[in-house]
Design a protein that fits this description.
The chain is α/β, with parallel strands linked by helices and about 300 residues long. The protein has 7 helices and 9 strands, in the order αββαβαβααββαβββα. A 7-stranded mixed β-sheet has the order 1-3-2-4-5-6-7, with helices on both faces. A two-stranded antiparallel sheet has the order 8-9.
Length: about 300
Amino acid sequence: MHYKCRKINRFDKISVMKRFFIAILSLIFFSSLSIVDSFAAKKLLFEKAPKELSSFSSIRNAVFAPSKNSNNVGRALVISPTCDGLRSDGKTNGDYRAWIKFFVNEGYTVLMLDHYNQRNIDGPSNGCGLDSKRKLMTNYDLPIDVLDAVEHLSVMPGVDKNKIFAIGFSLGTMANAYVASKNWYETFGDKRLRPRAAGGLYGACLMGPAKRVLNTDVDIPVFWLMGSKDIETPPSDCLPIIKGIEDRKETKIYWHIYEGATHCWDCASKNGHSRYMPWNGKTTTYIYNSKYAKDSMQRALDFFNSFK
């Protein structure tokens, strides 16, 4: 009997120690979750007044004034970057400057989104800012940033709130796809101002077979450009969904496939860059195409200008 009691006591001590360590681990885990939630919920701060674009001006969450030589009055544009974001080394920022310059010259007030810097995330160093410690949700945080940017532009002098548009690249295009979704908007949009039209270049329409990014329930006009040789975000994932949007006839969708174009065809800074994609086991190489880059800008401009 005495031996049996000692055995129970040993078991109790072990159980207490296990419960203690489980409690500590749980505390760390839930504390980290609250830190992540608090971190991800941090609102971006945008520059208050538009400025002129120069080769020295920062483009991080900056607002650029339209050219005075344009007759395009009241229009504005939110630009959302790829998962790289605006890199601290500045290597990819010239690609975004080209888009900013083009639309500024066409009379648009332009806001360039940077999801990471104010949140102390450096995109390239941690998997495009989507690592487990500081995760920004593609289907929540990023599209909310777009809405914040739209509202910021809407109160600026000279901007018509009904002529604010949103364009993105890869991940940025995906964020705009959520903004355009009726179901997403009714769930998360809280009746906030949305862009007049939204979309972008080489955005993924699916993330795995079960998760749609671009949905047939979109209820604002959508702009969607793809490359036929894009194995990172293939057009084959998009075409059935695009057809569904067209069949519903609830809103306009403009789409185009560039023959022979790879992912990031407008990225001069990434020409020849290769990356392995663990989700599909393939390696992609980006090829810059200056003709397609210019054509993409013009198609975007023509689409946005079509809304009076």
